[in-house]
Amino acid sequence: MTVRHDKKKGWLVDIVYTYPDGTKERLKRKSPVQTRRGAEQYERQVREAMLANPSNNGTRVRREVPTLDAFADEFVESYARANNKASEVKGKKEILAHHLRPAFGRLKLNRIGPQEIERYKARKLMDEYAPGTVNNHLTVLRKLLAVAEEWGLIDKVPKVKWLKVPEQEFDFLTFEEAPRLVAAADMRFGPMILVALKTGLRIGELLALHWDDVDLVAGRLMVRRSTWRGHVGTPKSSRSREVPLSPEAVRALKQHRHLRGEHVFCHADGSPLTDGQCKWPLWSSCRLAGLRRIGWHVLRHTFASHLVMRGVSLKAVQELLGHSTIEMTMRYAHLSPQVTRNAVAMLDQEAPRAAGAEGLNTVLGHGPSTAPCMASVANRP
Hints:
Blueprint: E1 3-6, E2 10-18, E3 24-30, H1 36-51, H2 68-83, H3 86-104, H4 114-126, H5 131-150, H6 177-184, H7 190-199, H8 203-207, E4 214-215, E5 220-223, E6 226-228, E7 231-233, E8 241-244, H9 247-256, H10 275-289, H11 296-309, H12 314-321, H13 326-329, H14 337-345, H15 356-364, H16 371-378
Antiparallel strand pairs: 1-2, 2-3, 4-5, 5-8, 6-7
Helix pairs in contact: 2-3, 3-5, 6-7, 6-10, 7-9, 7-11, 15-16
């Protein structure tokens, strides 16, 4: 089938073309018009272009596959800048410049296969790079090759085997340490620290928070944007979320209310703060509170950890944090041993009697003929 729809990529043209010399070529490209009719029209245009491609002697003109060095700049400028946040673009550029280009730069893209990738992994591990860091490099490499495939430069993306990453540890403040930190903070950054502890917002989300996003009457705020080194964009999950405010957070924001500008947390003249300018006040507060030096993300971990330890479901924590998957929230699961204890304790509870044997069989998916047997099993000690 030459025209098909992919859930992630949309309408694609997938053509296997046989040239006059008998050689075959497969092209997979994304249709510029994302409708079936538009994809069918694009497919006809691609076939016409391929018909015009053979030379006078009846053989095809082979396309030139670029090296990774030659393709890397176009990948960053044409793809990454159009589809990624500023921080992600910077990360891709650094990984390409310091790791992927030195390792694969002279290789043509179609010469980067599983063997070359495995050798790269082995070298980086010998250089004592963490498995998670190596996986980040491989993520950028695979995306670059996937874009090259989508643009018709290579036929297939090689399979990438990810390294196993040990569960990452994280720091958080105890129930006693958190209020000590707030009490030690000065009047300028105390409300910001408290709001971070009570909402779990990332530092970029705190710095991009506007008063229009805060409803002190209803007791909630909307996370609509995030900032990174002066670049304002969507939150990390690329979608807005609503976060309820605790009474303490509402009181702190009411006392902090100012008319200096649209930003909730800003300089005295209303200009926005940067994450670098917020680092030292937090460290100063830690010192005055007699605590270890921590970063702003520890306040986010504290928010999630305290919720889980108080019995809040992981699904609710996921929504409050804005995690795109529950797997990201599962790192906090071990902080709630009471959940598993309560689950196992339910095995000792007496089975419900109101529904009777037939009701029990209905729940278990058994027919009525097995009711006496199942009822006796349910009533065993």
